[in-house]
Amino acid sequence: MIGEIIAIGDELTSGRILNSTSYFAASHLYSAGHEIAAMATIGDQPATIGSALKRSIERADFVIVTGGLGATTDDLTNEAVAHALDRPTILYPEIFEKIKQSKSFKEMPSLEKLAWLPSGAEILKPGEKIAGYMLVYQGKPIFFLPGVPHQMRELMLDRVIPRLATWGDNTVSLVKQKIFKVFGLPEPLIQEMLSSFEKSNQELRIGYYPNAAEVHVSLTVRGESHAETEKQFQQGENTIKNILGCCIFDEEGLTLENIVGNSLREQNMTVALAESCTGGLLSHHITTVSGSSDYFLGGIVAYSNGLKKKLLQVKQLTLEKYGAVSRETAKEMARGARDACGADLALSVTGIAGPGGGTPEKPVGTVCFAIADKEKCVAMQYHFSGNRKIVQTKSAMTGLDLLRRHLHGLDFLESGW
Amino acid sequence: MIGEIIAIGDELTSGRILNSTSYFAASHLYSAGHEIAAMATIGDQPATIGSALKRSIERADFVIVTGGLGATTDDLTNEAVAHALDRPTILYPEIFEKIKQSKSFKEMPSLEKLAWLPSGAEILKPGEKIAGYMLVYQGKPIFFLPGVPHQMRELMLDRVIPRLATWGDNTVSLVKQKIFKVFGLPEPLIQEMLSSFEKSNQELRIGYYPNAAEVHVSLTVRGESHAETEKQFQQGENTIKNILGCCIFDEEGLTLENIVGNSLREQNMTVALAESCTGGLLSHHITTVSGSSDYFLGGIVAYSNGLKKKLLQVKQLTLEKYGAVSRETAKEMARGARDACGADLALSVTGIAGPGGGTPEKPVGTVCFAIADKEKCVAMQYHFSGNRKIVQTKSAMTGLDLLRRHLHGLDFLESGW
Predict the structure, then answer these.
(1) Which residues does chain A have within 8 Å of residue B281's beta carbon, measured at their own beta carbons?
(2) Tell me: domain A256-407, CATH 3.90.180.10, correct?
(3) In this structure, which of A61, A67, A353, B273 has its CB flanked by the most CB atoms within 10 Å?
(4) Is the ipTM here above 0.90?
């Protein structure tokens, strides 16, 4: 189906807030097989809202409208809809009862406004504290969603995408979707690896969404029966897993930081870090997880060679013979961090983030890692492209991925991208 | 003036790329005193581009169009414009000469396309390697800018905003703008501090843009003569500086990381860090600056109490008596980091990022800092609101700001927000 998206709010047209909800909607609708012909962002003026809505519904098969559903005076979507589509607002008693029971109602009687919706509105999550409804106009669905990003996302995924999947033609069309998070392969390579499979299967669609140093691969299958959809989906899932193997680190919505943390906790192990070029970024990633103090002891950011020697016991000879960015130095850093922090496991990273410091033998983007446990110490060398920030990000995330691979007994890749 | 913004590209309507250029344009146009009535995002279809453009130019006083100016087959803006506005494309010989001289032309003769523009197009930066032109249609300016964010931003600031400032009415209208970067005060408080001044001065406009833990305050003055604009601007600048004082850390487009780094370099000092709740984030911020190895030696991420004792010489008694999150522990951490790293200056941070770990006396968001130099060691306690990520970000940036204040001989605030 062809759709349009309308985002409403003066905070968007004045550039005070970046519109990320339309982007979220577009990317998920696209993955589900729809096409977005146009996205509009307009201010809180009822006349503008009305005419934008009428124009969109004439051109498109469906329309998503976000924002302007709240209780304050600049929330004007419902009035605009009532007027433009000739659907006068009526009181929805079941909503009003809920509002009357809430604590805030006494202080803010204006909340009653939330119970007045255009006639014909079908509440998307009845009984729950989340605004959002669907109207059918000239046989086409219009979804009105809150502008608050997390509420809008919830309704998009739980209500809008499933409703659209079965809309319209009489054949029952079913959609099943899954996201595979991939690390260690660049997006163009993943596309190339999966392209011939995708081309030979018209029923499924594969989407690619780079996300910092990760790539999120979506598999969407649209079948005409439950059994057929399941079969196609299973085949698609198996193929993607066979081709991308252990570069897929998640299928359940977890982050790399969560996965590494869960494995450390399960194996009852502690970890310490020795960072040079990432300057603390890898430590920080680990500590974004609440409760990471269960397994993360700490780390040493040895940015100068002096500190590599003093705090991590890296030998002067090693620095002279192999350089600060070398497998040899990385190994001594990892062992040094393990000893200094008394951890079961230690990871080190040392590299040239640029823009300065590169040489023909070791260009900017050369990064060495080592992992030490009580038995052995293994080092790896990578080469990453990109500016300073990108090299630092890729290095930190690769460090996390190496911990994942070590903890799961997987091979290390040694390449870069 | 009332304007509209049109962003063109299938990568936007398919949700592959988040549209940040329209946001940038809207926020700067708004600050410059214009109003954006609508923003549209459309795919690479010439008919859609043409009709969107015609509709916008009928309604608005000016239009900004971004994207679709490149040399590939899906760059269709120029053709769409030529057709919709009846301005057939013609060869611009001065552009074509430049292209013929470039190395890439031999391999990519399709680059010639860049020299064919709608007749009447006025190149925005003639002689430079950046696409972008202005067309006047029915007396109204339409600006066509590249979709590449940094190129689009350059042309918006250098060409579009100045051209619009003097457009239209015959009175010479001048616009002068400046951004003040503020740290340590929450946005609503800054608004309150400046609101009465803004209300009493119709010629100037103050904008507020929260940016991570910072707030960027823009001052825009629109006068009818050069002298009047200058006078109003000077008055506005003086007032803002008087009211916000040393919470303004930059007026020249530098980051807090740059400013701290420059001061350390000028004073020929080295710095080391001891981090607990920020888990390396502060170290990482310092190392985002290329060349930071000149002054940043490194740091110790002492996430566990064991490492605070082992690597930073924090006393068991101090931890027991005052707790890990206390001015006393912060002081020992700062002294310990200074000694361990052999730095001139050391900063420590220890706090409760949450969601767990809070107590009635020390709720989530309590964060202590200390700065040690060769003479003394000073500690401060703050309280920050927000989730784990926000508390970590505010803590790391406050650490940087404390270094700035120490290096510039300014007072420390001790509050939080």
Answers:
(1) 280-281, 284
(2) no
(3) B273
(4) no
